[in-house]
Amino acid sequence: MDAPWLIADPEPYEEYDLGPLKTGKEAEVFLVERLAADGRSCLLAHKRYRPRLVTHKGELQDLGFQRASSFVNDSAYRSERSIANSRDQRAAAKKTRHGRAVLNHEWPANEFDMLERMARAGVTVPLPVSRTTDGLLMQYIGDRTMAAPRLVQAGLSRAGLQQAATMLVDNLHRMVGAGVVHADLSVFNLLWWEDVLFVIDVPQAVDIGTNAQAFEFLHRDLENVGTWFRSKGVALDAEDVFRDLVAEATGST
């Protein structure tokens, strides 16, 4: 697996878009190769958020996107998240043209910040490299022959699934220790590569200290992944793990 942190800011360098990797509701991920002047290279994942404001037919296709934008109702995730000033807050709430521009900036900014925060806490996430005009560059999980599969598509044995469940709970403890809840966790937001579980897709991640619904999101996350693991014959008691995580977050252990 390539290591983007080795050449995070080489000068000079060139980047080449190698095509789309993944299409989602709000964004698409593209494979990028970065070549440094000294011959070093690495593969990066460029997550590009679709614009919320489209001015003409075919604009998304002209920008290289595969599908139309379909943003979730994100007001609950943005609870208590700071927006620069009151004008921006009002515009975001009313979904005006300016408000949509504010929100279009806010989600990738939050994802980059959360990836940095989680990486510092030891959570296995794609390491963030830099912001871009429409998203972020991060570590690519995979190699030159294939991208890392989602956990749901990894075809693991029972022993492999048990290992993945253990890694997931460990990562959740690190996340909660850093005051972070994923808030959209499922086996589709987990990658499996070289016997390591990676947590991905965190634009909606919330801060436990500032979002009133953080523990509600955490419980929902655990129910989502717990149900799937149990369907595969692997024990992951969502209620037990939830109690442990809340106790850790509130210092009541």
Descriptive account of the structure:
With 253 residues, this protein is of the alpha+beta class. It has helices at residues 59-62, 86-94, 97-120, 158-177, 214-231, 238-250, and strands at residues 13-23, 27-36, 41-49, 128-132, 135-139, 180-181, 190-193, 196-199, 206-207. Strands 1-2-3-5-4 form a 5-stranded antiparallel β-sheet, covered by helices on one side. It has a two-stranded antiparallel sheet with strand order 6-9. Strands 7-8 form a two-stranded antiparallel sheet. A hairpin with a 2-residue loop joins strand 7 (190-193) and strand 8. The radius of gyration is 19 Å and the shape is globular. Mean pLDDT is 83; it is low at 58-62, 68-72 and 83-103.
Write the layout of secondary structure elements.
Layout: E1 13-23, E2 27-36, E3 41-49, H1 59-62, H2 86-94, H3 97-120, E4 128-132, E5 135-139, H4 158-177, E6 180-181, E7 190-193, E8 196-199, E9 206-207, H5 214-231, H6 238-250
Antiparallel strand pairs: 1-2, 2-3, 3-5, 4-5, 6-9, 7-8
Helix pairs in contact: 2-3, 4-6, 5-6
Uncertain regions: pLDDT < 50 for 5+ in a row?
58-62, 68-72, 83-103
Helix content bin: 25-40%
Structural class: alpha+beta
Global outline: globular
